[in-house]
Amino acid sequence: MTILADIGTLGLIATIFFGALALVVAIYFGLVAPSRKQVDNLTKEVKNLTDAFNHWRAVPGDERLRHLLAEQGRRENLAKAAALAREEKHQEAIRYLEACLGPGVSPEDSASIYLLIGNAYLAISQFSEAEAAYKNSLAAAEGIADANDRREATAAALGNLGLVYADRGEMDKARDHHQQALDIHTEAGNRRGEGNQLGNLGNVYADMGELDKALNHHQQALEIDKEIGNRLGQAQDLGNLGIVYAQQGEMGKAREHLQEALAICKEADYRLGQAQALGNLGIVYRQLGELEEALKHHQQALEIDKEIGNRLGQAQDLGGLGLVYRNIGELDKAREHLQEALAIQRGVGDRLGEAKALGNLGIVYRHQGQLDKALQHFQQALSLFQAIGAQREIATTKENIASVKKAIRGQKARRTRKKG
Asked: CA 20 to 30 Å from 388, out of 67, 199, 290, 417?
């Protein structure tokens, strides 16, 4: 019997770290200097925007966001967009971001707004729309007069386009775009940007199965983040190294690196990073066969994601728990957790996560002998993967469909022989 492949396991919670880009411009508040309260409020609004639209993707730098917020009407739209994005209502947030565009908007501001729009679309796996927004950002960047700002805006759009292509399984395109972004940062001497793009390239090479290259790029990223004192970047690099070691079957090294990443996130009180590291450790423990440890780590990740309101993280944690329960043989619990994950992913519009949950539910139904339900879920997953353009997942799901169809034919043949 063909072994049914898991959909979205080790790489399920793997993320990519981007620092904010330093797109520096002057800010004009009029002739009267801003009060301390005004400055504090603006700083808070900048942080809100960054937190709402980062999700490990490049965002405009603080000074660029301050400039965007300087105009009152745009400021209100951006505040509403950030609030909606934090509630994971990305489709609604996009409408407010689009309201910030118009004929009088400068190339610098257009590049920044389109970058945020692309991030919102990417958060809900609308890859074609994200690609279009990032290309608009790239086009706007060409009109930026200052050479340094133009380079940084170009690198941001190129790097985020690389993420779109990676999510769609177009790995050659992903590699080329991340390499272009890396070249720009290297030429400009932007060490943080170099580290970020080296990490992205490491993830691409890992997905391509070129694990030695992946390790090399993640190690280079780690060296740079140590050099510049970027502790959260180090945590991300260590986590990515842990994932590659797990892919190589070196589970001891995988666990060691993920635990080190977790320690840094705890030290920085970075709750999102803690949840991600715990989730990835849960996957490693599952692959090691240490299922109680796996359950414990996924549960801890779920508690944190609930605490910080990270709905997508909760879906990933529930999916991880579902896979552990499947391995334990508690198939009803596995199904319940995967169905809960599916409901969240549908609720927030995460089509890629929805497709993965459907595929994993298909595997559970297959193990339960419910072949028709398994086939139904695989076919639903395939339709979504095809709509998204996720090539790797399309191939895996087609294998799963073929396996179930073969089992259904065998089942029918056995019934026919019994009747004869």
From this structure: 199
